[in-house]
Specification:
13 strands; two-stranded antiparallel sheet; alpha/beta
Length: 530
């Protein structure tokens, strides 16, 4: 994606295809599906999800099911689409209070983050008490992954070959022209293949799907932990279905007002990610990375030049060198893109990023990850664009993005290039969402919302958490004094303790509460945070 999803997303393409046993026989009139044999049904009011063990090695211990939902909720009798659903059963269900199953839904961000990948990768990072008491459930949102997907190429090979020709962002006039042309071509390809689907994959559509899934597992109120773009989904759900919004944790926050450009019909001056100030978040976090690298004990950070000023100068010199002399396939654009992604998860991301930068400084190409065995998976890079570009307003003139690039790099440095160009595909995207939700964002909910944000988040800066808590009708902000994208992916015992109390008893942290991360960057040991 384009940007807001957690660091596991860079690995998800190799896992996203061919890993689930999806049910196929429809339960008449229920809007969900059942397997042709075996399985365990769960549901209420005539609805059921039929669960079977997932087949993928990465999903060992998880169960999978398929739900059918209307493509267009205004025409529910018309076309239906599939949702791939995954869960891990509660590990100690005897500790539950009350009767029946208790479920906690999870969205891993994106847009375009597949829950069938994200939940298995992040499951162990959920607090143990939540894993003991709740079935934790996720799904591939419509248009994504194993659900009915947006696919604009005939094969994984064709898609991968197309994507390999397009840099993470363009450098120079020739690359700019090629980049703009390539993404205009992508939009036309997607429009030809399934124009109806393209217009029905908005966040509001996904929120309605989530409400169907809540009902299917028998929950009166939604329990939910959404990270990154999943916070915008959570805010959308809370305002579409305020009476069903139970206990929601929104972690690493997207400012809803900024995402939807305040609901304005006028063409925006700034692109989505610049309105969110994601470039500033990355720039600030990179500054912390270089300062903490330089201040770390000897041998803890490979890229250290001994003091903060020298380390910053070393980084600047490396970037300038790469613009004229790449190291193998490591161009300036690729390096900036990898550094941006490497800031998301402090452990092990920051150490790996430091080692990558040091290798490039020494003129060595960093070691590439091994090619996964098996068939080439479909990469799905068009799927997040399908959500973002159809609902979040962006400038429609491709030539505007060079000026946005200059603005972004002037205020946030090298990483600003990536954020400025990530929304350019939306300039020529052919589809507009048929049903998006633009606000209001302050409808009173059945329960208050817990908002969590790191102070140095490279994708959803702390200002986004403050905005989310301010815009929702009843929300409390818990500040994580730390680094990386989302608290779930950068663990804090303190945050987990507050999250557990909130989910189990509804108790919010005190006003102004703060937490520390368990393990600071470049630290050798884990520190428990009381």
């Amino acid at each position: 994606m384009p940007g807001l999803t957690t660091s596991w997303r860079r690995r998800s393409a190799v896992c996203a295809a061919g890993v689930l046993l999806l049910s196929t026989a429809v339960v008449s009139g229920t809007g969900v599906t059942e397997p042709s044999h075996g399985g365990a049904p769960v549901g209420d009011g005539g609805s059921a999800l039929w669960w079977e063990p997932c087949r993928g090695e990465a999903q060992r211990g998880f169960e999978c099911a398929t739900a059918k939902v209307p493509l267009d909720y205004d025409r529910p009798w018309s076309r239906t689409i599939d949702l791939a659903v995954i869960r891990h059963r509660a590990t100690a269900p005897g500790q539950r209070t009350g009767a029946g199953t208790q479920s906690l839904f999870f969205n891993p961000g994106g847009p375009g983050g597949a829950g069938t990948v994200g939940l298995p990768e992040l499951y162990e990072k959920f607090p143990a008490q939540l894993r003991e008491r709740f079935d934790i459930i996720s799904w591939d949102p419509r248009g994504v992954g194993q659900s009915t997907p947006v696919r604009c190429f005939d094969s994984a090979e064709e898609a991968t070959a197309w994507h390999a020709r397009v840099p993470p962002f363009p450098v120079g006039g020739e690359q700019r022209r090629a980049y703009i042309t390539a993404y205009a071509d992508l939009g036309r390809r997607c429009e030809r293949r399934d124009p109806e689907l393209l217009r029905h994959i908005s966040t509001a559509d996904v929120a309605r799907d989530l409400d169907r899934l809540r009902h299917a597992v028998g929950e009166k109120y939604l329990r939910y932990w959404g990270i990154s773009y999943g916070t915008f989904l959570g805010a959308t759900y809370a305002n579409l279905f305020p009476n069903r919004a139970g206990r929601l944790v929104l972690d690493g926050n997207v400012d809803p007002h900024a995402w939807m450009n305040g609901g304005s019909r006028r063409e925006p001056r700034l692109s989505t990610f610049l309105r969110l100030e994601s470039d500033l978040g990355s720039g600030d976090t990179l500054g912390q990375f270089l300062e903490l690298c330089a201040s770390a004990p000897a041998g803890r950070c490979a890229f250290s030049a001994g003091d903060p000023a020298a380390t910053r100068a070393k980084f600047t010199a490396l970037m300038r060198r790469l613009t004229v002399r790449p190291v193998g396939s490591w161009t300036y654009a690729r390096t900036v893109s990898e550094v941006r992604g490497g800031l998301y998860t402090v452990h092990p991301g920051w150490n790996h990023t430091a080692e990558t930068l040091q290798a490039l400084w020494e003129g060595r190409a960093p070691q590439e990850p091994p090619t996964p065995p098996g068939p080439l998976p479909y990469p799905g890079f068009e799927q997040p664009l399908g959500v973002l570009c159809t609902e979040s307003p962006n400038p429609r003139d491709p030539q505007r993005y060079a000026a946005l690039d200059r603005l972004s790099t002037a205020r946030s440095g090298d990483l600003g290039h990536w954020w400025a160009w990530a929304n350019e595909p939306c300039a020529t995207w052919p589809a507009v969402a048929a049903a998006s939700y633009v606000g209001p964002w302050d409808r009173p909910t059945a329960h208050p919302v817990l908002v969590v944000n790191p102070t140095y988040d490279p994708a959803t800066p702390y200002r986004g958490g403050q905005a989310m808590a301010r815009e929702l009708a009843d929300a409390r902000l818990l500040t994580l004094k730390g680094y990386g994208h989302t608290a779930l992916d950068n663990p804090s015992t303190c945050v987990n303790r507050h999250a557990v109390r909130y989910f189990l008893s509804g108790v919010l942290p005190p006003v102004g509460a703060t937490c520390e991360q368990d393990t600071p960057p470049f630290a050798p040991t884990t520190r428990a945070d009381g």
